[in-house]
Design goal:
four-stranded antiparallel β-sheet; single chain; 211 residues; alpha+beta
């Protein structure tokens, strides 16, 4: 009489019960494969459309300059751009120094040190076209002074004191003189200091400084 083992050996293969390979491997190795929870699966599917919306919004709303900067940073070309900006700033600073130095050198040639300006004019102080009055404008340590020789006569010299220039470099500011049109009345003296103009009114004998 055949035993159970012999019946198992003699049974056709289609009758044998096979266990799943996955179950065998899991039971053999003792390691269970992790499974994603339903919540994490849904969050992964939900985050994908949100990321797409954010990217689309950024592409449509970012300014071209911002987009170019982002591309520059991505391509790692920000270093040449930064070096170029620093070089431009340095060039502007050097250009300003050169312009300032050139202007000071030209003023030294025209007005000297201290700054001095001279002119002849007929202002009605016992002068005439044949004997005009002589004027000298002086910037002495930032103090503006104007000296008048009526008709060239040194015995009747008038000295007019102007403002004190307190700004840095004020002692290098040129001071020049001009006079108003004599056809419109007494000739007034106009004192020009950089961008400012002071009017000294003529009273027929001297000039009155502005109050």
């Amino acid at each position: 009489m055949p035993t159970t083992l012999d019946q198992h050996r003699l049974a056709p293969k289609s009758v044998l019960r096979h266990r799943p390979l996955r179950a065998d491997s899991e039971s053999a190795e003792g390691v269970s494969t992790p499974r994603r929870s339903l919540g994490s699966h849904r969050s992964a599917h939900a985050s994908a459309p949100q990321a797409g919306l954010v990217q689309a919004f950024a592409r449509r709303t970012c300014l071209p300059v911002l987009a170019g900067l982002l591309q520059a940073f991505k391509r790692r070309i920000w270093l040449p751009v930064l070096v170029g900006m620093l070089a431009a700033m340095l060039m502007v600073s050097v250009a300003q120094l050169v312009i300032s130095w050139t202007a000071t050198a030209l003023d030294d040639l025209h007005y000297g040190r201290p700054r001095t300006y001279q002119v002849d004019a007929v202002v009605g102080h016992q002068d005439s076209a044949a004997s005009p009055s002589h004027f000298l404008a002086l910037n002495l340590h930032g103090r503006i002074q104007i000296i008048e020789w009526p008709a060239g006569d040194a015995t009747h010299v008038h000295v007019y004191v102007g403002p004190q220039l307190l700004a840095t470099g004020g002692d290098l500011a040129p001071v020049t003189l001009s006079f108003s049109d004599p056809s419109r009345g007494p000739v007034d003296m106009l004192v020009h200091i950089e961008q400012s103009t002071l009017i000294f009114h003529n009273n027929g004998q001297t000039f009155q400084p502005p109050t």
